[in-house]
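Reviewer 2 asked us to include a model.

Predict the structure of this chain.
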Amino acid sequence: MREPPEYATYVRERSPRLLHTAYLLCRDRAMAEDLLQTALAKAWTAWRRIEKDPDPMGAWTLKVYE
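Predicted model (structure tokens):
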């Protein structure tokens, strides 16, 4: 299945910040990358709901890290 262009933009623009946040949570680069991949996979499956959020970087994405 092809990803929406908005999702690709979201990933490109937000990944560095999300990776940094994940690293701050676990202090392990490999684990932070795994957390980011999990978060992005969950974001892709819920994209229709997330893209309606005025701040998609907000609480929803950070909640995935819990």
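DSSP finds four helices and no strands in the chain. The helical segments are 5-26, 29-45, 47-50, 59-64. We have added this to the supplementary material.
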